[in-house]
Amino acid sequence: MFSTLFILAHLLLGGAFVIFGIRNVNGVPRLAAALEGRKIAQPETAARIGVGLQIAGGALTALAPFVPFAGVIGGLAMIVFLILATVLFHPFWEYSGDEQTPHLNAFIMNSGLTGAFLLVLAHAI
Fold first, then answer.
1. pLDDT tens string 56-86
2. Cα separation, 48 vs 26, whole angstroms
3. What phi and psi values does residue 23 have, to the nearest 5 degrees?
4. Are 35 and 20 in contact (CB under 8 A)?
5. Which domain covers residue 28, as residue numbers?
6. DSSP assigned state of 40
7. % of residues, the chain, pLDDT over 70
8. Closest Cα to residue 45, out of 35, 55, 60, 56?
9. pTM of the predicted model, to two decimals?
10. What confidence score (pLDDT) does residue 70 get?
């Protein structure tokens, strides 16, 4: 039973980020514009790298039960992605009032997801 749940958890967690990443491919111009507003050098390249990290990290997480070291690489990639996405796109501390709420919610959600990827990493090492 544990191995079935373990495989299912990896497929769901990693697969969700693969789908999010594929959906973000079309949003690269929007993401790049947001990064440009935050004074990030080469914002379009940074956005493409971020989307690639999201897709690759998600895929490696999904494959972790089957591929040696995929959990380590995928877990680390997703932790880096989530930290960067949170700091760059959801800095709740820069907002106030109603505008702060969605960013705070995203911060909390990304913190929880970072914990999930720490579990992936912990199991892989």
1. 999 999 999 999 999 999 999 999 999 999 9
2. 10
3. -65, -35
4. no
5. 2-124
6. -
7. 98
8. 35
9. 0.92
10. 96
Amino acid identity for residue 27 in this structure: G
> Total domain count for the chain?
1
pLDDT > 70? residue 112:
yes
- Per the CB < 8 A criterion, the answer to whether 50 and 34 are in contact is no
Q: Residue 110: which of 10, 28, 18, 17 has the closest Cα? A: 17
Measured from the Cβ of residue 124, the count of other Cβ atoms closer than 10 Å reads 19
Give the tokens for residue 110.
Answer: 């990304």
The whole-angstrom separation of Cα 52 and Cα 74 is: 12
Place of tokens 């880096």: 80
Closest CA to 9 of 113, 84, 95: 113
pLDDT at 1 over 60: no
